[in-house]
C-alpha cells in the first residue's frame, strides 16, 4: 500500500463541516474513486449470485447436467472475483480511513503550532484532545463508508433492474420500498446529530477537568481539596454519561430500524414471490432467486443506514475541527528584516542594550510578564528591534531570535538529552556547559542513565526546583540572540540562586539577556536594572544605586525589610 499523503500546506476558506469533508475527499480523490470502484464491483458480484443460483436450481429441476456445470463454473468465477474485490475494497477502505484521519491530525497539529500562545486562550485542553481521541476516527469513518455506501446504491439499482425485468410488481416494490425506508430513517438523524454534538462538548469539558486535576494534584493534596474536585469530576462525568445514554437511545432505534425495515421488505418480497410461484407465474428457480435477492438486500440497505449514522458523526467531528482551523493568531508577522540591535518596548520604556544583562524588577509581577510578552511578540505592542518595528518581521524569525522562557514552561516526556537540546544540534560539551550554568549538573549525575534517562510527562519525577534548573539549561542551549527569562530562580534555595546568577552572567556574556525578577541575588549580578511600576519605567541603574536612590525599588526587592 502506498504511503499516506502529506496534508496540504494551506487549507481553503472552509465555512462549514460539509465543505471540510468534501475538501478532504478531494484531497484523496484517486484512492477514494479506486475504493468506490472495488466496492461497487464487490456488491455487483454479490447481486448477480442469486440469479446464477436460480439458474442452477432450474438446471437441477430440468436435469440438465451441462447447464448445471456451466452455471456452477460461473458461480465459482463470481466467488473468486468477490474474494479479490473484497480484499481490495477493504485495503482501500483502510487507506482512505487513515488518509482522512491523519490528514486531519496533520492539519490540526500544524494549526496548533501556528496559533502558539493563542490556542490555550481560545480553546480548552479537552476540546483539542478530543479531536485526536475521537473526532479523527469519525472523519476517517465518513470517508470509509463512502466506498460501501456508493456500492450499495449501485447494488440496489442492479437488483431492482433484475427484478423488474423478471417480475414488474416485485421490481416496483423494491424500487419504491428502499426510498421509503430511507425516508423513515431520516427523522432520527437530526436528534442524533444534536445529541452527539452535546455529548462531544461535555466529553471535551470532562477531559479538560481531568487534565486540570492531574496537573494540580500536588496542590490539591496540600490544601485538602481532592474530595471537592473529585466530586466535581464525578458530577461532570455523570452528565457526560447521561448525554452518551441519550445518544445511544437514538442509535439503538437506528440499529433496530436497520433490522426491522429491511426484514419487512424481505418478508413482503418473499411472500409475493411465493404466491407467484404457487400460481405458476414464475418457475421455482426464480422464486429461489427472489428469496436470495430479498436476503441480499439486507446488506446494502443496512449499509445505507450505517452511512447516514457515520456521515452524521463525521459532520459533528468536522465541526470541531473547523472550530480549531478557523482561529487566527492574535499576532502576525510581516516580511521585513532587521540586523538586530536595541530592543525597546515603547509603552513601558524598557530598553535592552545589545550584549547587556538587564534585570527588570516590577512592583506587580504581572507588569514584568506583560513586558516580556510584548518584547517576545506574544501580544501586540509598539516594540522596535534595531531600526525595524518588531511587527514587521516574520514571526518565525522573531521566534528564532528572541526567546521568552517563562517559569511555567513544561518539560516534555522523552529522552532527557532530546528535551534539553530541542534543536538536536548541541554537542555533549555544550550540554554540559548549559547544565553547569543552570546548576543542574547534579540532577543529571543522579540519574542512572544520565542524559539518556527518560523524562516522564511534565517532568513529574523532578522537584519544582530541579524542573526550573533544567528549563533554564534548555533555554541556554538554544543560545538565542535575545534571551528573556521570567523568574528563572524562584523555586531554588538562596545558595543555588547565587551560583546561578553568577554563572548565568558569564554564560550570556556579550549577548542580550533580560531577567524578570525581584531577587536581590540576581539583581546584584545584572549590569543594568530597570524598576517598573504601574507598567512604566520608574527608575534605572545598578542594583545598589537603586537601593540607595529609589525607596519604591528598595521596598519591592527587600520585601519591606531593612
Automatic annotation (TrEMBL):
Q: Which GO terms describe its molecular function?
A: ABC-type oligopeptide transporter activity; ATP binding; ATP hydrolysis activity
Task: List locations, semicolon-separated.
Answer: Cell membrane
Spans traversing the lipid bilayer: 29-48, 68-88, 145-164, 170-189, 259-279, 285-304
Membrane topology (UniProt): Multi-pass membrane protein
Pinpoint the ABC transmembrane type-1 domain residues: 33-313
**Among its keywords, does the record have Transmembrane helix?**
yes
> Which keywords does UniProt give here?
Membrane, Transmembrane, Transmembrane helix
Q: Where is the ABC transporter domain?
A: 322-559
Q: What is this protein called?
A: ABC-type multidrug transport system fused ATPase/permease subunit
Q: By its UniProt entry, which PROSITE patterns does this protein fall under?
A: ABC_TM1F, ABC_TRANSPORTER_1, ABC_TRANSPORTER_2
Q: Which InterPro entries match?
A: ABC1_TM_dom (IPR011527), ABC1_TM_sf (IPR036640), ABC_transporter-like_ATP-bd (IPR003439), ABC_transporter-like_CS (IPR017871), P-loop_NTPase (IPR027417), Type_1_exporter (IPR039421)
- Give the CC-aspect GO terms: plasma membrane
Amino acid at each position: 500500500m502506498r504511503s499516506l499523503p502529506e496534508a496540504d500546506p494551506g487549507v481553503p476558506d472552509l465555512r462549514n463541516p460539509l465543505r471540510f469533508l468534501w475538501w478532504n475527499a478531494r484531497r484523496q480523490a484517486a484512492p477514494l474513486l479506486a475504493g468506490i470502484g472495488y466496492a461497487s464491483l464487490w456488491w455487483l458480484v454479490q447481486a448477480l449470485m442469486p440469479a446464477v443460483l436460480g439458474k442452477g436450481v432450474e438446471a437441477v429441476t430440468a436435469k440438465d447436467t451441462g447447464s448445471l456445470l456451466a452455471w456452477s463454473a460461473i458461480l465459482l468465477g463470481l466467488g473468486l472475483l468477490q474474494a479479490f474485490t473484497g480484499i481490495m475494497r477493504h485495503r482501500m477502505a483502510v487507506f482512505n480511513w487513515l488518509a482522512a484521519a491523519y490528514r486531519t491530525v496533520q492539519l490540526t497539529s500544524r494549526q496548533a503550532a501556528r496559533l502558539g500562545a493563542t490556542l490555550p486562550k481560545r480553546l480548552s485542553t479537552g476540546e483539542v484532545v478530543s479531536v485526536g481521541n475521537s473526532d479523527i476516527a469519525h472523519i476517517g469513518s465518513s470517508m470509509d463508508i463512502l466506498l460501501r455506501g456508493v456500492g450499495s446504491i449501485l447494488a440496489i439499482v442492479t437488483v431492482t433492474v433484475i427484478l423488474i425485468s423478471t417480475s414488474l410488481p416485485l421490481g416496483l416494490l423494491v424500487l419504491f420500498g428502499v426510498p421509503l425506508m430511507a425516508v423513515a430513517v431520516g427523522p432520527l438523524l437530526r436528534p442524533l446529530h444534536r445529541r452527539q454534538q452535546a455529548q462531544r462538548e461535555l466529553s471535551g469539558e470532562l477531559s479538560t477537568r481531568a487534565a486540570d486535576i492531574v496537573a494540580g494534584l500536588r496542590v490539591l493534596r496540600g490544601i485538602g481539596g481532592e474530595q471537592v474536585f473529585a466530586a466535581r469530576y464525578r458530577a461532570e462525568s455523570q452528565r457526560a454519561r447521561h448525554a452518551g445514554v441519550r445518544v445511544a437511545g437514538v442509535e439503538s432505534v437506528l440499529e433496530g430500524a436497520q433490522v426491522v425495515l429491511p426484514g419487512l421488505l424481505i418478508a413482503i418480497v418473499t411472500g409475493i414471490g411465493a404466491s407467484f410461484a404457487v400460481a405458476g407465474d414464475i418457475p421455482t428457480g426464480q422464486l429461489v432467486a427472489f428469496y436470495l435477492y430479498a436476503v441480499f438486500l439486507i446488506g446494502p440497505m443496512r449499509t445505507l443506514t450505517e452511512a447516514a449514522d457515520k456521515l452524521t458523526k463525521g459532520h459533528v467531528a468536522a465541526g470541531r475541527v473547523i472550530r480549531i482551523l478557523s482561529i487566527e493568531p492574535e499576532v502576525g508577522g510581516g516580511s521585513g528584516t532587521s540586523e538586530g540591535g536595541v530592543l525597546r518596548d515603547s509603552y513601558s520604556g524598557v530598553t535592552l542594550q545589545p550584549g547587556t544583562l538587564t534585570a527588570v524588577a516590577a512592583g506587580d509581577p504581572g507588569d514584568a510578564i506583560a513586558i516580556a510578552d510584548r518584547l517576545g511578540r506574544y501580544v501586540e505592542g509598539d516594540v522596535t528591534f534595531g531600526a525595524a518595528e518588531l511587527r514587521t518581521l516574520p514571526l518565525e524569525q522573531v521566534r528564532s531570535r528572541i526567546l521568552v522562557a517563562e517559569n511555567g514552561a513544561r518539560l516534555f516526556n522523552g529522552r532527557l538529552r532530546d528535551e534539553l537540546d530541542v534543536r538536536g544540534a548541541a554537542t555533549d560539551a555544550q550540554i554540559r556547559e548549559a547544565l553547569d550554568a543552570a546548576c543542574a549538573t547534579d540532577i543529571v549525575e543522579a540519574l542512572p542513565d544520565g542524559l539518556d534517562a527518560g523524562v516522564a510527562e511534565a517532568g513529574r519525577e523532578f522537584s519544582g526546583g530541579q524542573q526550573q534548573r533544567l528549563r533554564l539549561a534548555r533555554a541556554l542551549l538554544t543560545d538565542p540572540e535575545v534571551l528573556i527569562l521570567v523568574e528563572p530562580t524562584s523555586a531554588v534555595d538562596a545558595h543555588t540562586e547565587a551560583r546561578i546568577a553568577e554563572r548565568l552572567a558569564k554564560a550570556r556574556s556579550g549577548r542580550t539577556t533580560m531577567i524578570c525578577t525581584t531577587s536581590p541575588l540576581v539583581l546584584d549580578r545584572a549590569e543594568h536594572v530597570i524598576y517598573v511600576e504601574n507598567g512604566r519605567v520608574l527608575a534605572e541603574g545598578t542594583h545598589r544605586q537603586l537601593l540607595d536612590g529609589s525607596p519604591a525599588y528598595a521596598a519591592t526587592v527587600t520585601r519591606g525589610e531593612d
